[in-house]
Amino acid sequence: MLAIGSDHAGYELKCEVKKFLDGLGVEYIDCGCNGERADYPDIAEKTCEKIKSGECDKGILICGTGIGISISANKIKGIRAALCQDYYTAKYTRLHNDANVLCMGGRVIGAGTAEEIVRVFLSTEFEGGRHAARVDKMMALENK
Fold first, then answer.
1. % of the chain with per-residue pLDDT over 90
2. Could you confirm whether 131 is annotated as catalytic?
3. Is 8 known to sit in a ligand binding site?
4. Which of 46, 2, 7 has its CA nearest to residue 24?
5. Hey, which end of the chain has fewer CB within 10 Å, N or C?
């Protein structure tokens, strides 16, 4: 299961991503917004709580640039959110960082690019190995 959320600036792209997910048969929980004004920290928290609780495995967050919502998500313990704007960053954040939240900017990328990013993010598994120790170190920073 996937959690997805956006503020008002990312709402349009979120709607396009949801259509794409529907076409793939991917189940998701929409954590808002529904087009109304919304603050990205609130949406990040609501969406990431679905991952922390185990209800969802991964998440997608969208705001205007993707920056604010990714910073907000990364403040939540257990979340590894990555702002991706292309195929390469989406692939390698899964392979090397085991990112569990994909962030995108609705005012930065179009629907076609977003679909490509979502597809690779969802289909790429964490490589583990030497990267696992680095992810462990990254996550240990939350406790300092």
1. 99
2. no
3. yes
4. 2
5. C
